[in-house]
Amino acid sequence: MGKDAFTADAWDVVGRKVAKERLLADIYQISKVSVGSPVGSDSDVIRMFRLVLKEGRSFIAQCNEIEDRTVALLKDLPDYQLFTSIPRIGPINSLTILAEAGYLRRLRHHRQFPKFCGMDLATIQSGTFRGQTKLSKYGNTRLRRTLWMAGQIAILQRTNSFCDKFERYIAKDRHNTLLRRKEYTAIAAEMARTVHGVIKNGDPIAPSLRGDRSHKDLSLCGP
After folding, report:
1. Nearest to 216 by CA among 160, 157, 145
2. Which of 88, 139, 164, 218 has the fewest CB atoms nearer than 10 Å to its CB?
3. Per-domain residue ranges of the chain
């Protein structure tokens, strides 16, 4: 297949938020020299790919089934409705928070829930030695992972407060990986505070802050 034909066929596969033509040109050039291609349709590589693809589709189907069952069980629960007003907190994330956090109203201060998730800062100290300040990670691992993944997906959307905060922070140096990782952590902690806030106040997130809600809950199916 020539470069132009490949670009035309693959055009709709690539997302909208990338330089499509350049990315597809790079993929085409890499594939021409890759030891893995071209390969025959009956090769071991293709058979393995088909096996992985089949397992992936099965996993996605299970995710969708869990999501549908979650919606059926929780759709009339007020706390569930509050959670799903938050960008990228879908049915599976909401179910995880409800199962792992329990009765959130017992936590009176907005800092208590991030600490419960292990998102508070801690510094290792011994005598005169003072180590680096970082996340304590003493809290609930499943909650921390859920909020981290929700935050990662929220910042990819261009119309919510989490993305706005992330973009303002990394504008100082967009290619600084340490800066970006610090802000990923800050976004996850902000997500935890938001979860606690909507429950404490009993008010959903305003539409102007949450952006487009037409999405699937990708937390379980994502990388």
Report:
1. 157
2. 164
3. 3-38, 70-210
